[in-house]
Amino acid sequence: MQPLTRQLGDVIPLPVSVRPDPAANFPISTHLSVSAPTEAADIAEQLAELLRHATGRPVSRTSGEDEEAASFRILLDGYDKNPDDRNGTAAEAYGLEINSETVTLRAGSNQGLFAALQTLRQLLPEEPADEIVLPGGRIEDEPRFAYRGTMLDLARHYFEPADIRSFIDAIAQLKINHLHLHLTDDQGWRLEIPGWPRLTEIGGGPGTGVDGAGPGFLTIPEYADLVAYAAARYITIVPEIDLPGHVNVVQVAYPELTADGQPVPPRTDAEVGYSSLVAGKEETYTFVEDVIRVVSDLTPGPYLHIGGDEAFSTPPEDYRTFLNRVLPLAGKYGKRAIGWHEIAAVDLPPTAIPQYWRIEPADGGVAKAAAAGHQVIMSPADRAYLDMKYDQDSPLGLDWAGVVGVERSYDWDPADRLPGVGEESLLGVEAPLWSETLRSLADVQFMAFPRLAAIAEIGWTPRADREWRSFRARLAAFGPRWTAQGINYYRSPEIDWA
Ligand code: TNX
After folding, report:
1. Which is the closest atom of ligand 1 to the Cα of 400?
2. What is the CATH code of the structural domain delimited by 17-141?
3. Per-residue confidence at 1, pLDDT binned at 50, 70, 90?
4. Which amino acids are annotated catalytic?
């Protein structure tokens, strides 16, 4: 008997049901073939590619009569563990069965098959190998929450599309399915907007970003390519235009959007809360509506994030006036508005989603929104912020929310975080990565991994099945995979890395 390459349950996030059957282990030695219905041709190609890479062997695609004989079978068959689909997760449900002759991936949609593929990827060795034995048995799986996200801050430091694509590949493996892009802030504007060319000429030009060290912006074709690249990995891009605060660079580019029409100097420090659009000026809404329309048109996903945080220099009355006018614009252009939870200070449109980001143990506004039926995204900074230092010695990151080690990022539950905001109010969980202290993709990887794996498991795995000791052991086994992929993860001393 050849030794197993991996145990069936050696997967992050931990699947809902794992039933090993050691009598049914599958040695990958025979001729490899993949069969799939035409609708799943793309998944079949990805599976074949995965197997070619892992084994170095040719993999054929079979159809018609040979399908029964294929060693890897893909079935699209209305697989559904969750027929009423109250939390919107049914599309991601899948089954994976491994026996001594065949591996079968089953789901009701390609999205579910893609999730199955990510599980199978982790059952293969991280480096190509001649002798691979897949563990026999059956996995049945589906996520706890529909929204499992992370965020990249392109404003404080711009990251090139190639870096963003690399990050997308890394997060897809953890079944993260939303990537929020923080596209604008005081220090930079990172998406081209037709009709407002100075936003990116000035806001994406040399000297932008914190300490002037992160210039650049996405052209419209580049943004569209990223959206498509993410979509091919079942990741929805959530664009954020941060309003009404965090807009200094807008006012540098277009002085008519300041209170007195006078130009303001560019800023590259990391202060927050000093800039604001003017609620009482019509020019404000012309600008905002143009931007919301353009970004909505470019974005096929259902969400548009309008920021709303830290508007310390917007008088409260003006903040409400502004949001009452701007939040409905998301709906006008076909989107659901997400905003940092400060937006809960106004009566929200029915589909709007507050995203909780603070460290306090309670929040009246978010509780009220939840009571009114709003869904909430949980991102408490003292648990979910990937830009917090791991410990006091971390070379990168901030510490205003404390230091966040791996256990701290794992050992909490979003349904317990805020009174009045329980399981049924949660759309999901997101781990934001702010980039004030980051300069490169390697920096991004260092802060995101391994903590994003913890957040991914919180978002996917049933609460009752989560356990730090189990996660810690699976994470240790995951390390070599990141190494093989060239990912600069933090070798936290909390983990006995393999
Ligand atoms: C707070 S979180 C901010 C950001 C900073 C971040 C740094 C939030 C909605 N606003 O402007 O980048 O802290 O951790």
Report:
1. 14
2. 3.30.379.10
3. low
4. 310
